[in-house]
Amino acid sequence: MALDPVETNPANYRIAFENERVRVLEYTDEPGHATSEHSHPDSVMVTLTSFRRRISSNGKSVDVELPAGVARWLPAQHHTGENTGDTETHTFFIELKEPAGVQNKAVDEPLGPAGP
Fold this sequence. Notes:
This protein has one helix at 5-8; strands at residues 13-18, 22-29, 38-40, 43-47, 51-57, 60-66, 71-74, 77-83, 89-96. The protein is 3% helix and 47% strand.
């Protein structure tokens, strides 16, 4: 990853889980906080709080507002973000490590979640 958010914004991103197929990042910030430039691979974002932010990249910006408790697809991207609302941001990013179009064959393993 070009600019790993855990390295560029260590006070805001932490690795919650990682294996050979995914990495799960937890992100938190306060109103007014802006991130340094960073990159995300294809990911699923799960919001734990509602928030407003401005996402900027290559001279373009978009304002987003998301409620708590939603999951959204986040295509691979490079950006900065700013909390433009009056609430804390708390989200999880489930980053995919496999390139698009790659599917693994089913394996004979136990059902349910794996241990810690």
